[in-house]
Design a protein that fits this description.
About 5% of the residues lie in helices and about 40% in strands. It has one helix and 13 strands. The strands form three sheets. The chain has a six-stranded antiparallel beta sheet, with no helix packed on it. Strands 8-7-10-4-13 form a five-stranded antiparallel beta sheet, with no helix packed on it. A hairpin with a 6-residue loop joins β2 and β3 (about 60-70).
């Protein structure tokens, strides 16, 4: 009588799922936060904007995904892209605006969790104002080549704000 409940539970114990197999790096590519390296951008001041490519490249054909980090006190100059860009703010607050006239005081706050779609061919600018406490990290996705074009190529692609 004492063994009956144990014997009844035996089939359920034998049917427990096996331990999960390890991730196959040929099938699932994992990069932990410490393995994602942000790189300074050529032509921009140190600690103004950095980028971490995750998949593809905005300058090559096909899908790309990058992380961009804007530091307080810097914004991009007005620019356009040939293709749409889909953006998700991961941390901080990203200050954004559309139009050719650079006016940081008219930017709109896009806090962490916000989604922004940059429509192809439309001028815009963005970054993080000087008085903000932390950088903004944004995931950018699109189809390359993105075709970055500065509205005034005689000026730097960044503004100190």
């Amino acid at each position: 009588m004492l063994l009956a409940p144990l014997l009844a539970a035996l089939p359920m114990m034998l049917a427990l799922p096996a331990a999960a197999s390890p991730i196959d790096p040929n099938e699932t590519i994992l990069r932990l936060p410490g393995e994602i390296a942000f790189q300074p951008q050529p032509g921009f001041p140190q600690h103004s904007v950095e980028m971490a490519p995750l998949f593809g490249a905005s300058t090559a054909p096909g899908l790309y995904l990058v992380l961009i980090k804007w530091y307080p006190g810097y914004m991009s100059a007005p620019h356009t892209y040939l293709t749409d860009r889909l953006c998700v703010v991961l941390s901080g607050t990203w200050m954004i605006n559309s139009g050719a006239d650079f006016d940081p005081d008219r930017t709109v706050a896009a806090p962490a969790g916000s989604f922004v779609r940059r429509v192809a061919g439309t001028p815009h600018y963005d970054g993080v104002k000087r008085d903000m406490k932390e950088p903004a990290v944004i995931a950018l996705c699109g189809l390359g080549p993105g075709g970055l074009k500065w509205l005034d190529p005689s000026q730097p692609g960044w503004r100190k704000v």
